[in-house]
Design brief:
Blueprint (H helix, E strand, L loop, with lengths): L20 H6 L4 H13 L1 H9 L10 E6 L2 E6 L2 E2 L1 H10 L7 E6 L5 E5 H17 L7 E5 L4 H13 L2 E4 L6 H11 L3 E5 L2 E3 L2 E3 L1 H9 L9 E5 L13 E3 H6 L13 E2 L3 E7 L7 E6 L1 H14 L7 E4 L6 H13 L3 E5 L10 H9 L3 E4 L1 H10 L2 H4 L8 E5 L5 H11 L6 E4 L33 E4 L12 E5 L9 E2 L3 H9 L6 E9 L5 E6 L3 E4 L2 E4 H9 L4 E11 L3 E10 L9 H12 L8 E4 L13 H10 L13 H11 L1
Parallel strand pairs: 4-17, 6-7, 6-8, 7-14, 8-11, 11-12, 16-17, 16-18, 18-19, 19-20, 29-30
Antiparallel strand pairs: 1-2, 3-13, 4-5, 9-10, 14-15, 15-23, 21-22, 22-24, 24-25, 26-27, 28-29
Helix pairs in contact: 2-3, 4-5, 4-11, 5-6, 7-8, 10-11, 13-15
The structure holds adenosine-5'-monophosphate-propyl ester.
């Protein structure tokens, strides 16, 4: 694997910002308590996390903090809990009972406020429905929902019965649903008739029907459908059930539902993410360790206080939605704001209007969104009173210093600290991020590993790079919310993350540490691209393209993009004797939409007679990347077999 430095710009950044005095003077963690946390964590990381775990509700205490048999970790071994007791039940015994757990705004402007008591009631009821439908501890349930409060209810209801949820982002196609449902062997799917996006109805149920047609998912016996849009959907008798009707038909004794105790290491969810092969990986997270770290990091990094209105803009279909929309904030008793629709709908100031209206105090979003707003101009932001904001966060992709500064000055009025948080689906929770009342920030750096987390940057032999050069980002010590495996594929788990450098977790990112100990993330160094913070495997897009009957070969690379961070460029060769037709590009775009989802569509498709290959037949993606980025090739081409294809592409680029 080759390390690439495509974000060198970060290395020249010298600006730095101390935690604002007004902020740190009331922060939960100031410089002194941060130093104390770091000290405790360094002295004994396991004892440190055990202390954090005691903030959760346990049904039975654990016996051992950590059993580490690389790459298998057991955190809080033999402890028993149900995560929903920490997220819901315990708040009912306090003033939080009547506090809003969720404030939701639909794209059409409808608002719903749901207290902890009400959320608990809804979760109990859906848990009863699941059990009535035969769902038991360890069963897998797919969730394919719009961003409505019921998506959160669905996840928590699964957790309450000890079922393992697999949330599938609503932008995924029927084909992707089918693969995920079959890989996880789901017996039940929770979906909705549709959801709203950009003023249109997204037909979620139709996608489920398509995924299930002709017995394509033999394990599924029930589809539970939440009525959201009142759109026409077909209900298959014996299989499909309306959510609202199932709840209404519950017997009185089923309105409450005692949480099922499970092992600390019982899987809480599977979440599919892209890797370097065409097949997405079902990342498995478990219960006690996961909740410990997501709850602790929510509290530290967002400095979460009782009266905060907290908005993480991620969809529950991604890990950020799992950890920082649902489990972390609810475990901390937060009021979580949720917005169903598109960021610029119906006008470019939709976000700022909602922040003003709901008095949102913490905003956590992706750099792509920030860059999009930045391009639209300051006026949309300045039109609104954003004085309720006190903290801003970013996640999912590297943020360029220019966007960071704009976020700070224009959105945060130069008074809100910015927390740039580095982590992954596999890490489950934040790993590198500033604790805002204590850590000096630099635009473009996620700063330093959180207390209890040991990260490093190493060379190909696993030796620390120090501060002089970039290298591979790794973790040196297990952490509570680490992925416990890839669903049904232990070998791939070992190979992908634990074999590159013995004893170290390999994150797949390049990074550099500066003289002050700050980490600068340079982006993926494998065949994974990051578009608008969405992770897409180049091989997945390639397999989608070659599934089209006219395509012979496809090579997919990323080029930098000012807004989305990276953009996909696909190089395609056609089967022999195929006359090029002007609509082919459109058709191939449709194929990617059908196979994966429209968010994975290439920004450009380039047709070529042949792809540049080494003598051993390997496609030289490096050259294609260079061509897609700079329009010309400067690197070494001595191993290239057929130069003519490249020359043709270069000429085309020059026109
Ligand atoms: O390349 C890193 C990038 O996103 C990848 C993880 O993607 P995913 O599993 O989808 O999780 C995204 C949300 C946590 C990482 O390998 N990434 C994530 N956060 C940052 C980042 N790159 C730079 N800075 C970040 N703050």
């Amino acid at each position: 694997m080759r390390l690439e430095h495509h974000l060198d710009i970060h290395l020249n950044e010298t600006r730095q910002f101390l935690p604002p005095v007004e902020f740190s003077s009331t922060a939960k963690i100031d410089a002194e308590s941060y130093a104390q946390l770091q000290k405790e964590a360094q002295e004994n990381p396991v004892a440190f996390w055990e202390k954090a775990a005691r903030n959760l509700v346990w049904k039975k205490p654990w016996k051992t903090g950590l059993i580490w048999n690389a790459p298998k970790a057991q955190w809080f071994a033999e402890g028993k809990l149900n995560v929903t007791e920490s997220c819901l039940d315990r708040h009912l015994a306090t003033d939080r009972r009547h506090k809003n757990a969720i404030v939701w705004e639909g794209e059409d402007g409808e608002i719903q406020k749901i207290t902890y008591e009400e959320l608990h009631r809804q979760v109990c009821q859906l848990a009863s429905v699941l059990v009535n439908k035969g769902i038991r501890v360890g069963d897998t349930v797919a969730i394919y929902m719009p961003l409505v409060p019921e998506a959160v209810v669905a996840m928590l209801a699964c957790a309450r019965v000890g079922a393992i949820h697999s949330v599938i982002f609503g932008g995924f196609s029927a084909e992707s649903i089918k693969d995920r449902v079959n890989d996880a062997g789901c017996s039940l799917i929770i979906t909705a008739d549709g959801g709203y996006r950009k003023g249109q109805i997204v037909s979620l149920k139709k996608n489920i029907d398509k995924a299930l047609q002709e017995q394509a998912c033999p394990t599924v016996h029930t589809v539970l459908v939440y009525r959201r849009t009142n759109s026409d959907v077909e209900m298959t008798p014996g299989r499909d059930v309306w959510w609202q009707e199932a709840v209404q038909n519950l017997e009185k004794q089923d309105l409450l539902f005692d949480a099922v105790s499970v092992d600390s290491e019982h899987p809480l969810f599977i979440l599919y993410t892209s890797g370097t092969t065409g097949k997405p990986k079902g990342i498995v997270h478990t219960s006690g360790g996961y909740l410990t770290q997501v709850a602790a990091t929510t509290s530290w990094v967002f400095d979460l206080k009782e009266d905060d209105i907290y908005w993480c803009t991620a969809d529950v279909g991604w890990i950020t939605g799992h950890s920082y929309v649902v489990y972390g904030p609810l475990a901390c008793g937060a009021t979580v704001f949720l917005y169903e629709g598109a960021p610029l709908h119906p006008a470019p100031d939709r976000f700022w209007e909602m922040i003003e209206k709901h008095k949102i105090s913490i905003l956590y979003t992706a750099p792509t969104a920030i860059r999009t707003f930045m391009r639209l101009g300051d006026a949309h932001v300045k039109k609104h009173d954003l004085s309720s904001l006190r903290l801003l966060g970013t996640v999912g992709e590297p943020i360029n210093p220019e966007a960071w500064m704009w976020y700070r000055e224009i959105v945060g009025g130069s008074r809100c600290p910015i927390v740039d948080t580095w982590w992954q689906t596999e890490t489950g929770a934040m790993m590198i991020a500033p604790v805002p009342g204590a850590v000096i920030t630099k635009p473009g750096s996620a700063t330093r590993p959180l207390p209890g987390i040991q990260m490093d940057v190493v060379d190909g032999n696993g030796q620390s790079c120090g501060t002089k050069m970039g290298g591979y980002l790794v973790a040196r010590h297990p952490w509570p919310s680490m992925a416990r495996g890839i669903w049904k594929d232990e070998d791939r788990f070992q190979e992908t993350y634990w074999s590159q450098m013995p004893g170290l977790y390999f994150a797949g990112d390049g990074a550099r540490i500066d003289e002050d100990g700050n980490f600068w993330i340079m982006g993926r160094i494998d065949d994974v691209v990051n578009i608008s913070g969405h992770r897409i495997g180049t091989m997945e897009v390639e397999s989608a393209l070659v599934s089209h009957p006219l395509v012979a070969e496809a090579a997919v690379v990323a080029r930098p993009d000012e807004i989305t961070g990276q953009a996909i460029v696909a190089f395609v060769t056609l089967k022999e004797n195929i006359a090029f037709d002007g609509n082919l590009e459109k058709k191939l775009m449709q194929t990617v939409t059908q196979q994966i989802g429209s968010f994975a569509k290439p920004a450009a498709i380039r047709f070529t007679d042949s792809l540049p290959k080494t003598r051993s037949g390997k496609i030289m993606r490096r050259l294609l990347r260079e061509l897609a980025t700079k329009g010309k090739i400067t690197g070494d081409t001595t191993t290239l077999e057929d130069f003519s294809a490249l020359v043709a592409l270069q000429q085309e680029e020059a026109l």
